[in-house]
Amino acid sequence: MGRFIINGGIPLRGEVAVSGAKNSALPLLAACLLTEEEVVLHNCPRIGDVFSMQGILEKLGAHVRFSGNTICVAAKEIETVAMPEKLSKKIRSSIFLLGSMLGRMRRAVFQYPGGCEIGARPIDQHLDALRKLGVEIEEEMDTIHCRTEVLRGAHIRLSYPSVGATENAILAAMLAEGTTTIENAAREPEIVDLQNLLLAMGGKIRGAGNSRIVIEGVSRLHGAEHTCIPDRIEAGTFLAAAAVTRGELRLLSVNPGDVRGTIDILRGAGARIREEEDSLWIRVGGRLEPFHLTTNPYPDFPTDMQAQMCVVAALCNGVSRITETVFENRMRHIDELKKAGAEAEVKGHSAYISGVYSLHPADFTATDLRGGAALVLAALAAQGQSTVSRIEYIDRGYEALEYKLSSLGADIRREC
Ligand SMILES: CC(=O)N[C@H]1[C@@H](OP(=O)(O)OP(=O)(O)OC[C@H]2O[C@@H](n3ccc(=O)[nH]c3=O)[C@H](O)[C@@H]2O)O[C@H](CO)[C@@H](O)[C@@H]1O
Ligand SMILES: C=C(OP(=O)(O)O)C(=O)O
């Protein structure tokens, strides 16, 4: 457990390359179990959750080589159908392996996944989708036993466009007999990325990015090489960092279209933003105007950018309203931000944030991954020395954050 020590008040300036997307890399790594051949993923971020996923794959019997940002997974044989408990409980995305394990082995023994505490995060939709494909599921305390003789294509209608349930249903259906249709599927760019890897592996799938996905099961998938898409949440976090430090940044290796929600809000608030094919430029010269945003599934505003935008709002010229509809307990950073003089009140699912001219330094404690990133932004904005502890949350999802920020002029160091 370490902490960041940040001397804030310095406008960030310069160029920074955005890493591969955490929320793509994790389901892509799960997909690697669907073939005994090697799958090579480029642009894979070196972050805590990917290291945990690597550990799980190795415990299941896969050979994994992770060099630079390229990870090679060869799951020639799977040695156990039981997920390693400690690692599985560490990350939410261990649940994605359920679909792959059932596709490949027809059996799996699972623990409820871990991850950040941002809401109840049930997995009922994942399990309902798998039951539709013919999986028998027995839940015993914290352990879930899943088995099937044959996976059969089915018509699945999700009651909410859950990202994880969509990905799990896709992964299980790839090697099922017959056709699977997923209605009310999540439309996130990471689902399109998963489809692209599965197509490269010889799968038959279409429709990702729309709410209806159709999969024709095949009897086997083969190895492939694929590049993870850029992380739209990391990109959004850097845009917010430019806004709160009133700086000027150029983000490289980014898909501007995937960052639309954040770009539109910041532009509407007065930030100057230029979009190029795979880069973004932002300049913020003074205080931004207040804004209203509501998180919702893609293409609406992403919940994973809500906390960072609370810091932007904390420095705006008026009252902003930020409403969280995706997770029921994702406002814990607000109390931490108040330590730096933020004026905010949470009523129901909304935070009403009355912007102040400047934040002051404080000793913050990260409450979760994105909440932790928000506290780093607050510390960068506040003139003087702040600390952010429990940074293991932040390490789950941001690659080399302190190095990237230092290269933009920030005074930040890690203390272990
Ligand atoms: C690794 C990964 O990709 N994580 C992302 C994924 O999480 P994750 O896949 O867990 O998020 P979901 O889209 O599934 O969850 C959205 C909402 O649906 C609820 N729900 C979900 C499944 C289910 O079976 N039952 C149920 O009630 C959840 O509790 C939550 O309130 O999408 C979230 C929403 O964009 C992001 O914040 C996470 O960063
Ligand atoms: C909530 C997040 O991730 P996870 O679903 O992996 O907990 C996130 O990336 O903000």
UniProtKB/TrEMBL annotation:
InterPro entries associated with the record: Enolpyruvate_Tfrase_dom, Enolpyruvate_Tfrase_sf, MurA_subfamily, RNA3'P_cycl/enolpyr_Trfase_a/b, UDP_GlcNAc_COvinyl_MurA
List of residues binding UDP-N-acetyl-alpha-D-glucosamine: R92, R121, P122, I123, D124, Q125, D304, V326
Keywords, alphabetical: Cell cycle, Cell division, Cell shape, Cell wall biogenesis/degradation, Cytoplasm, Peptidoglycan synthesis, Pyruvate, Transferase
Pfam family, one: EPSP_synthase
Location of this chain's protein in the cell: Cytoplasm
Catalysed reactions, semicolon-separated: phosphoenolpyruvate + UDP-N-acetyl-alpha-D-glucosamine = UDP-N-acetyl-3-O-(1-carboxyvinyl)-alpha-D-glucosamine + phosphate
Binding, phosphoenolpyruvate: K22, N23
Top-rank lineage group of the source organism: Bacteria
Domain Enolpyruvate transferase: 8-405
Pathway: Cell wall biogenesis; peptidoglycan biosynthesis
Enzyme Commission designation: 2.5.1.7
Family assignment from sequence similarity: Belongs to the EPSP synthase family. MurA subfamily.
Function text: Cell wall formation. Adds enolpyruvyl to UDP-N-acetylglucosamine.
Protein name: UDP-N-acetylglucosamine 1-carboxyvinyltransferase
Originating organism: Guopingia tenuis
Organismal lineage: Bacteria, Bacillati, Bacillota, Clostridia, Christensenellales
Gene from which this protein is expressed: murA
